[in-house]
Design a protein that fits this description.
With 124 residues, this protein is mainly beta. It has one domain: Electron Transport, Fmn-binding Protein, Chain A (Pnp Oxidase, Chain A). Helices cover 14% and strands 43% of the residues. The chain is built from two helices and eight strands, in the order H-E-E-E-E-H-E-E-E-E. Strands 1, 2, 3, 4, 5, 6, 7 and 8 form an eight-stranded antiparallel β-sheet that branches. The chain is globular. The two termini are 19 Å apart.
Length: 124
């Protein structure tokens, strides 16, 4: 499901998170995860210092995800999907969707029957 990204809401949400895991996929269809720090420039997330494997994967499959882990146990993770482009020693990720996500608990049951997670779209 694609949820329209409200760029103002994404900017505010990113302030609550530090690093993220950048997820890419190579030609062998295996996922590759690396910890990164992404900066918001108003339209894209920018990431410096990519490794060879990450850069090669983006050249094959430019669809990526950034998973920002929760700041505290039981908190929401911020998941941003996007299209990546490589530049001069920098990666730019143009967000296509973003969601806050966490496992459901007894105190915070899922909103949808049959679902084991609680998620909410980013809205301004």
């Amino acid at each position: 499901m694609s949820i329209k990204v409200d760029l103002a809401a994404l900017d505010a949400a990113l302030r609550d998170f530090g690093y993220a895991y950048l997820l890419t996929t190579g030609s062998d269809a295996r996922p590759h995860a690396v910890a990164v720090t992404a900066a918001w420039n108003g339209t894209d997330l920018t990431i410096h210092g990519l490794g060879r494997r990450t850069a090669a994967n983006i050249g094959i499959h430019p669809a990526v995800s950034l998973v920002h882990p929760p700041a505290e146990p039981g908190g929401y993770s911020l998941i941003v999907d996007g299209e990546a482009t490589l530049g001069d020693e920098m990666l730019r990720v143009r967000p296509t969707s973003a969601v806050l996500h966490r496992p459901a608990t007894e105190e915070a049951p899922p909103q949808n029957p049959g679902c084991t997670a609680d998620r909410r779209p980013l809205t301004g």
